[in-house]
Automatic annotation (TrEMBL), chain A:
The lineage of its organism: Bacteria, Bacillati, Actinomycetota, Acidimicrobiia, Acidimicrobiales. Catalyzes the condensation of carbamoyl phosphate and aspartate to form carbamoyl aspartate and inorganic phosphate, the committed step in the de novo pyrimidine nucleotide biosynthesis pathway. It comes from the Bacteria. PANTHER family: ASPARTATE CARBAMOYLTRANSFERASE (PTHR45753:SF6), ORNITHINE CARBAMOYLTRANSFERASE, MITOCHONDRIAL (PTHR45753). It catalyses: carbamoyl phosphate + L-aspartate = N-carbamoyl-L-aspartate + phosphate + H(+). Its EC number is 2.1.3.2. L-aspartate binds at residues 82, 171, 225. InterPro entries: Asp/Orn_carbamoyltranf_P-bd (IPR006132), Asp/Orn_carbamoylTrfase (IPR006130), Asp/Orn_carbamoylTrfase_sf (IPR036901), Asp_carbamoyltransf (IPR002082), Asp_carbamoyltransf_Asp/Orn-bd (IPR006131). Belongs to the aspartate/ornithine carbamoyltransferase superfamily. ATCase family. This is Aspartate carbamoyltransferase. Heterododecamer (2C3:3R2) of six catalytic PyrB chains organized as two trimers (C3), and six regulatory PyrI chains organized as three dimers (R2). One of its GO terms (cellular component) is cytosol. Carbamoyl phosphate binds at residues 54-55, 104, 132, 135, 266-267.
Amino acid sequence: MRDLLSISDLGADGIEEVLRLTDSFVEVSERRIPKVPTLRGKTVVSLFYEDSTRTRLSFESAAKRLSADTMNFSVSTSSVNKGESLRDTVLTIEAMGVDAIVVRHASAGVPWQVAQWVGAAVVNAGDGWHEHPTQALLDCYTIRERLLERGGSGSFDGLVVAIVGDVKHSRVARSDILALTALGAEVTLVAPPTLLPPGIGSWPVVVSHDLDAVLPKVDVVMLLRMQVERQDEALLPSMREYTATYGLTRDRARLLGGEALVMHPGPMNRGVEIAADVADDPRSTIVRQVANGVAVRMAVLFLLLGSGSEAHG
Amino acid sequence: MGDVALLLAGGTVVDAGGTRRADVAVAPDGTIAAVGPDLAPEPGALVLDATGCTVAPGLVDLHTHLREPGGEEAETVESGTRAAALGGYTAVVAMPNTVPAVDSAAVVRQVQELGAGALCDVFPAGTITVGRAGTRLSPIAEMASLGVRLFTDDGTGVADSRLMRRALEYASSLGVTLAQHCEDPALSAGTHMHEGEWSGRLGIPGQPAAAEELMVARDIALSRLTGAPVHLLHLSTAGSVDLVRRAKAEGVAVTAEAAPHHFTLTDEACAGYDPVFKVHPPLRTAVDVAAVKAGLADGTIDAIATDHAPHPVEAKEAAFDQAPPGMLGLETALGLALAELDLSVERVLALLSWQPAAIAGIEAHGGPVAVGRPANLCVIDPAATWTVDPAALASRSRNTPYAGRTLTGRARHTILRGEPVVIDAKATR
C-alpha cells in the first residue's frame, strides 16, 4: 500500500491488518518509554489546511513514538489565498525530502490530488465531507477492544451500529460506514432527511428517523458532532429541536442495552448531540477512542513507511 | 487572377437545402462564385482537395468564452478564434462575462475590434444587466445598434423574475434575443457538481437538477407572458429537455442549446476529483445524457454550443471545490457530435451551423452554399481519426476533459470569407 486515502483502499483484509498491528503499538504506548526506532530517519510532515488539534497531535505523537522526524506545515486559509497553488505548496514540501504527508483539507478529494503530484506516501487525515479513514480505523479498534474485553470473539458479524446525526457533512460517518460494513456490521443511520447525503438509497445501510426505536436494538451508538453554524442553512428549525428528536439525552440513554457502547469522534457538543452525563457514562468509549487513535496511526505509518511497506513494494 | 481564387474540389456539399456532390468555387471577393459538379480549376486558383469530405457552411458557436478583455491568461480573442477555426467554426458568439463585462458600447466595440482580422468572425453578446449584477438593465438598444443580437448574463442567470420580464419586454422591440443561464441561485449556491449518488459518495456539495429546471420553467412562462423569444443556454437535465419540448409544442418562442460534454460525460467523471471535470451546469447522470441526445435528435434542442470555457492550468490545480468551472470545447465539438450522437452528418451540421446562426441572427454564416453568398465554409473529413492532446490545442488553456480520447471526424479546411484560414487541419497564419 502506497497511500491511505480511503477506507476502500484497505478492504476488510487491510482493515484487519491495521487492527492487528495496532495491538502491538498499543503495547508500545503503554511502556514507560513509549518509543521504538522503527521509522528512524523517516520524515513525516503534517499538512493541515484546516484547524485540527486532536488529529494533528495524534499523528505527530504516532510519528514521534516511531522515531520519525516530524514537520508541521499549518496553512491558514489566508496564506493560501495569497496565491500559491495547492500543487506548488505540495511540491515545495516534497522538495524538502519527506517520506509521508499527512493531509487535512476542508475540500473533499485533496489527498487524491496530492497523491498524484508526489512520490511520498499520503495519508488522508480528513478531506471535507468525504473521508477520515484513520478515525474509522480507531473506531473499529475501539469497538473490537471492548468486545474482546467482554470475552467475545471480536467479530463484527451481525454487530448493530447506529450512526446518529449529521451524516451528510460528516467525513467520519462516510469512513465509518465503509469500514463497519466491510467488517460485517449492520449500520443504521439515524438523522432527519436534511442531514442525510443525496443518493443514500444506494448505500449499504438502513435509514431511520426514529432514534427511540433504534436505540434498544444497537450494540454501538455513534454520535456525530452537530455543527451549530449549520442552522443558517435551514437544515433544522433549531438546535433545541434537534436535541429533542436526535440527541442522546439522559432519558434516551436508558433505552440502550447495558452492554451498548456510546461513541463520539469529538469534539463533543455536550447538551446538543449528547448529554453531559451520558458522555461520562461507563458505556462511553470517548476517551479510549483518543488513546487508541495514536496507536492506530502508528500502525498506518508503519504500514506505509516501515519494513512492511518495502516488502509490499 | 481570374474569377476564381479558390476551388474546393471533389467534396459533397451539405447545407440546409440538402446534400449533393459538388465543387465550390470562391471568387476573389470572398463570395461563392459557382457550385456544381466537376468545376474546372482556373489557372492561378488554389485548389483544396475535398475528396471524401463534406463541404458545409462554417460552424457557428453560440457559446464561446474568449475571456478578453480581462482573462487573457486563459484565452485571448486571437487564441480562441484560432481554436475555433481549427474546430471548423467560422463564427463564434463571444460571451460577455469578461472583465469588464460587455455591458456598454465601449466594450462591444473593443471586442469587435479585437475580432477584426481574427481567424474566425467574432460576434460579441451583451449582458442583460449592468455588470451581470442582476439589478439594472444594460443599454440593450445601444449595444443592439452596434450589431449585438444576443444578450445574456451567462455565468449566472437573471434571478429576479420581474427584471427578466422587463428585459424581455424591452428587448422585444429591438429584434434581439435574450439567452438565459438557467440556475436558481438559492438552490445552487455553494455547489460544485450535480447532486446525486456521486456527490453524496464523494462528499462534494451538489446542485439538484431542479436548480436548472426551475429557471427553465420560469423563463418559458415569461416568454409566454411577453411573447419575446428566449434562448436557453446549455440545457443539461432530462427535466429541462421535457419542459422545452412541451413549450415548443405549445408554440412558445423558446430555443435551446446543449454542450458536447452534456451528451458525452456523466457525473461519475468527478470521482477522481480532477477539477477538469468541473463545469456549470454540472455533468449529470446517464439518464440526463440520454435525454439531451433525444432532445438533439427530435429538434427540441436547436443547437450544439460548446460553452468553451478556458482556465489557466494553475486555476484547475486547485481543490475541486475551489477550482473554477468550465472546459474547453471548440476543437472537440465536431468530433464528439459525430461520434456520440446517432445522427446523420446533415443533422449534426444543422445543430452546429445553420440553426445556431439563425438563433444568433448571424446572416453571413450558416449557409446556404450558393452563388453570391459569403464563402464561410468548412470542409469536414468524416473519416479522419485523431487523439486529443491537450498540449497540441490552439487554446491558451489546457482544460479539456477529453485528453487521450480518440475522435473520428475533423475539420480539414476552414474558409473565412474566401480565405483558407485552416488547410489540412493547420492554421495558415
